[in-house]
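Lecture notes, unit on protein representations.

Consider one protein chain, 201 amino acids long.
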Amino acid sequence: MTTFTLPSIPGELEWKNQPLEWKASPDGSLAIRAGERTDWFIDPAGNFAQDNAPSALFAPPDANFILSARVAVDFRATYDAGSLQMRENDKLWAKLCFEYSPQQQPMIVSVVTRGVSDDCNSVVIDGQEVYLRVALTPQAISFHYSLDGAFWHLVRYFTLGALGQARVGFSAQSPTGQQCMATFSDIRYRAGALKDNRNGE
């Protein structure tokens, strides 16, 4: 099993599903290239379930933590995305995505899965880069995005229930395309909780 480290991450990252290509750079960034028809979704209508997107995950050492990164995606096909993820098990997980919509627009998308996936499109982003953040407390999870890494907007505030073996990390996907490269830079992890989950402080 391939494991690696990043300077800003307090623990080893391990691959769930191997990417076509990946690179951890000296500047602390991580690039992930997903192959064709890769996704992480359980259709609520029961039509399909996919769990083959390459994901680099680690076990956070803190009950409360905040993980953020600048995410750049080489969009080519519908639903290409780079994402931050929280995963307890195969049926209990959530992801915050920077994703290419069917309207050919980069967009913030969140998916919360409790047996089946609850998929929610948020706002359109002008450009191929955005900041994503996930914040965890023992009771709840909040997803935010930012255009500059300083002022954060709430995307989703929810719970996955009591978590016992959660892992968090980075992923790329290309559900309808042949491949997708997502690059995560300015990666930051810190123990502690936000002062206010809704305004992002």
